[in-house]
Design a protein that fits this description.
Elements: E1 44-49, E2 63-68, E3 71-74, H1 75-79, H2 86-94, H3 101-106, H4 108-122, H5 129-133, E4 136-138, E5 142-145, E6 153-156, H6 160-170, E7 186-188, E8 194-196, E9 200-202, E10 205-208, E11 217-220, E12 224-225, E13 228-234, E14 253-260, E15 263-264, H7 265-271, E16 285-287, E17 301-302, H8 321-326, E18 328-329, E19 331-338, H9 340-344, E20 350-356, H10 364-372, E21 383-385, H11 400-403, E22 411-412, E23 418-419, E24 427-434, E25 442-443, E26 447-452, H12 466-477
Parallel strand pairs: 6-21, 8-16, 9-26
Antiparallel strand pairs: 1-2, 1-5, 2-3, 3-4, 6-7, 10-11, 12-15, 13-14, 13-21, 14-16, 17-18, 19-20, 19-24, 22-23, 24-25, 24-26
Helix pairs in contact: 2-4
Length: 478
């Protein structure tokens, strides 16, 4: 997977160290040549062993881990092994139980120390290999969980191609609203419905109203869509009333993931005026389970793309020279669709889109600074979504709303099926891959979820809702 229509960064950013060496050999066999999780990645996650517990003293229940190939290194076991000291031990101990919020709160120094020590322990020739090997759990024998308790979730709108494409559907002569190039636009989402990859969710019911209808109806959404996004996990927070300056914003990033902000476009169209998305966005958000650290992504940092002539420069509080030179990321982003029929026939998923994080109009640091500029306090484990990241051409569009031009141009799938929006049983898979000259490629792992039929909602008194009587018609039309 390579990004579409994007030039690789010409210069290697500062901060590359021995953990990024593409020549590092790992004694974990499955890590060699792994497309996502070689020794140069070492992402954090939360897991619970379900089989193969070699030491009953380790106990059960969720604990932090580091992904390496097809294995997970148990940070609870590592913290108690005597193989760590200082900041590395502090970070592993913080991950020993529960979510990773405490690890995120420690910031970069502890995270870097643990990453460096784990890299040493996993490198071929490490003297403590046997001891560390006993702390590995096969991914197939573990439940991989949502990495942190999400206190708040904010979704932004930084994909300028997506903003233009959607705007053209509704405002052909003026697709971008006046504030877009001045302000990182965002809205507050619903943290309670963030789910980890591999879950399914139900098609939402809601009020729908076609332009020609006199009144809305309550029914399952007919226009269920995906959104291809980069997720950002917040690390150390900031006290309420103390904005984060742009030159310190990167210190507040704990890591990155993939994020699918599922969207019910017909519910959205009826409800969004005047306060923006509500029920059309709060029923499900899916994230990939592995937290890709800022340290792992150092080789893939790149200058923020130059704004087109005539675009305003960011206001002073959002403008930092270092951030403009190294604050962007060059990561290829992919969307795939696996329908129920394809799954039953053993067919491979069909690629819908190939985009890149290089198409973000604002940097992650700018998002954090703007988010806190009015005094908002962020907390460890808060989640930010980038907004849909679309490329400039149809093969890079990050939503079906764009790909099908609002549902008017159906997608023809290789098996003869067609789609305008998602049907029940469809599974969407997001993938990401970072590559750069002189660096070992790394990935994020899958972000996937399957759409289930809308729930049956009884009326008061036990009768079926309006949606129950319409469900067969609506499902056949999606």
């Amino acid at each position: 997977m390579t990004s579409s229509g994007v030039n690789a960064n010409a210069a290697t950013p500062a901060g590359v160290d021995g953990t990024h060496d593409p020549g590092l050999d790992c004694w974990v066999e499955s890590a060699t040549g792994h497309p996502d999780f070689p020794i140069q990645n070492l992402p954090f996650g939360l897991f619970a062993p379900t089989a193969g517990m070699s030491d009953a003293a380790e106990g059960s229940g969720p604990r932090g881990g580091i992904r390496i190939g097809q294995e997970i290194l148990d940070l609870r076991a590592l913290a108690g092994s005597g193989l760590l000291a200082g900041d590395a031990l502090r970070a592993a101990a913080a991950a020993a139980s529960g979510g990773l919020n405490c690890v995120f709160a420690l910031g970069a120094s502890a995270r870097k120390a643990l990453r460096s020590r784990v890299s040493e322990l996993l490198t071929c020739g490490a003297p403590d290999r046997r001891r560390v090997q006993a702390m590995l759990h096969p991914v197939a024998e573990c439940a991989v969980l949502l990495p942190a308790a999400v206190g708040d979730y904010t979704d932004f709108y930084v994909g300028i191609n997506h903003a233009v494409n959607v705007g053209e559907l509704f405002r052909p002569d003026n697709p971008l609203l006046p504030n877009y190039k001045w302000i990182p636009v965002g809205y507050h989402g619903r943290a309670s419905t963030v789910q980890v990859s591999g879950h399914s969710f139900h098609r939402p019911n809601g009020q729908l109203k076609a332009p020609t209808d006199k009144a809305p109806v309550f029914a399952p959404s007919e226009r269920l869509d995906l959104e291809l996004e980069l997720g950002v996990w917040v690390g150390p927070g900031n006290p309420q009333g103390h904005p984060v300056p742009i030159d310190r914003a990167a210190e507040h990033v704990a890591g990155y993931c993939l994020l699918n902000d599922w969207s019910a476009r017909d519910i959205q169209a009826w409800e969004y005026q005047p306060l923006g998305p509500f029920l059309s966005k709060n029923f499900a958000t899916t994230v990939s389970p592995w937290v890709i650290t800022p340290e792992a992504l150092v080789p893939f940092r790149t200058p923020q793309p130059t704004r087109p002539a005539g675009d305003p420069a960011p206001l002073t509080y959002l403008n930092d020279e270092t951030d403009q030179h190294t604050g962007a990321l060059d990561i290829a982003l992919e969307v795939l669709l696996l329908t129920a029929t394809m799954r039953a026939n053993g067919a491979a998923p069909h690629r819908l889109s190939l985009s890149s994080t290089r198409h973000m109009y604002w940097t992650v640091a700018q998002l954090i600074t703007h988010h806190t500029s009015g005094g908002c306090g962020l907390n460890p484990g808060d989640l930010l979504g980038s907004g849909t990241i679309s490329g400039p051409t149809p093969d890079g569009y990050g939503s079906l709303l764009e790909i099908t031009r609002g549902g008017t141009n159906a997608i023809a799938l290789p098996n003869g099926e067609t789609r305008t929006f998602l049907q029940d049983g469809d599974e969407i898979i997001l993938r990401a891959r970072a590559t750069a000259p002189g660096a070992a490629p790394i990935g994020f792992g899958d972000c996937r979820a399957t759409l289930q039929p809308a729930p049956i909602t009884p009326k008061p008194g036990g009768g079926p809702t309006e949606s129950d009587g319409q469900r067969g018609e609506i499902r056949s039309s999606t």
